[in-house]
Amino acid sequence: MNADMVSSDGGPQPRPQPQPAPQPRSRVEPRSRRRFPLAYVSAGVAALFSVPLLGVVLNVFREGQGNWPHLVSTVLPDYVLNSLALMFGVGAGVVIGGTGTAWLVVMCRFPGRRLFEWMLVLPLAIPAYVVAYAYTDLLQHAGPVQTLLRDLTGLGPRDYWFPNIRSTGGAILVFSAVLYPYVYLLARTAFLQQSICALEVGRTLGRSPWSAFTSIALPLARPAIVTGMALALMETLADFGTVAHFGVPTFTTGIYRTWYSMGDRVAAAQLASVLLAFVFALLVLEQWSRWRARFHETSRRWQEIDPYQLHGWRAWLATAFCAGPLVIGFVAPVGMLLWMAAIGGHDPLTARYLELTANSATLAGITAVLAVVLALFLAYVARIERSPLAASANRVASLGYAIPGSVIAVGILLHVATPDNATERHSRHTSR
Fold first, then answer.
1. Which of 209, 255, 289, 328 is most exposed, with minimal Cβ within 10 Å?
2. Ranges in the chain annotated CATH 1.10.3720.10
3. CATH classification code of 67-345
């Protein structure tokens, strides 16, 4: 008998019985300890955000006061053509200005490069309609530019031609000068994330610097450029102050006039639905650009880009190219505003200005806090839940930036006006 099977008193030791395998703990927690699925709360927040959009869509096929056929036959073609002209003009302007300046500050050394890296973002600090007001006073017939031109040349008011800033071309110039930083920021990040190895391989294969930019760097940065352009175009479609001041009829001005001048909220909602079609087309374009970006390399494993020095006229040409958008979008309008404030004689410490400042600061502060809290909550839920419901809720909630403010306002007012109108009709029926 084996020695380890003998007990201390000499008798045989019983064999140890096999222990049952431990049962795995059930993954189903007791109901009292089960965590509440936050994805449902996230879906509720997204549903709340979609209420204005649903209000617009549900009124598309309703019969209003009969103004929709009149709008279709008279002003709707102008709204469509002007919106398309703004989209094509602003899209080309922001892509050229944003991509060109981003490439220069990343790939080249020239006078003022370090300053341009952060100063090129400054036009985003000024609303487009404020820039429009400044340029109207600067370039109008009685403005300082034309007045100086007449003083220097001796020409009369009708002896020369001067471009009209209050036009579609003027709106394109203002939007392009103010919104190009969207493309600049995203394109600069995309260029910084590219490796110098890919560009050097192109140079060894005979590519010139311009050819390497157009055939290698630009295709790699295309998703970022298209995304920035889509953001700029959404801002263009959503703007009201600039196009209204310049007298360019677009969907935003048409929605306002249809609601307040004609009193037809259904026709205003139908105009807003057409504007939504433009917005969703931009969203599809942006998503398509991401889908096509199969070789968008963002790895930092390789050698970083080392800017090369520009000399002579090329260096000063790069400085002028970067200074142009900055001067048009920030320096000139800010200078004009300061000059107008200096000669206007207005006291900024009056009760009216202080009230406007307090209202603006209060509205901006409350909106910023709510936006940050809701964004953090939605991002946190999407991170811990990882469910299709949470992901869909984030997509729906993120549409708020893409939808123009005029469309959201129409959707909210439609929901607010419905119970008021029902109450009024009930009161009239009761009084009878």
1. 209
2. 67-345
3. 1.10.3720.10
Query: What local confidence, expressed as pLDDT, does residue 162 receive?
Result: 86
- If we measure between CA atoms, which residue out of 123, 417, 61 comes closest to residue 260? 417
Q: Give me 223's structure tokens.
A: 């998703």
The pLDDT mean for the chain works out to 79
Q: Cα–Cα distances in Å, from 151 out to 83, 146, 161, 164, 347?
A: 38, 9, 15, 20, 32
Whether 278 contacts 74, CB under 8 Å: no
**Model pLDDT for residues 53-101, shown as the tens digit of each residue:** 777 777 777 776 778 888 888 888 999 999 999 999 999 999 999 999 9
Q: d(Cα 423, Cα 429) in Å, to the nearest integer?
A: 10
Sign of the Cα pseudo-torsion (203, 206, 209, 215, in order): negative
Dihedral angle at the C-alpha atoms of 66, 67, 71, 72, nearest 10 degrees? -10
**Count of C-beta atoms within a 10 Å radius of residue 169:** 15
CB neighbourhood size of 146 (10 A): 17
Q: What is the full DSSP assignment across 379-431? A: HHHHHHH--HHHHHHHHHHTHHHHS-HHHHHHHHHHHHHHHHHHHHHHHHHHH
Give the amino acid at 45.
V
Per-residue model confidence (pLDDT) at position 86: 94
How many residues in total does the chain contain? 432
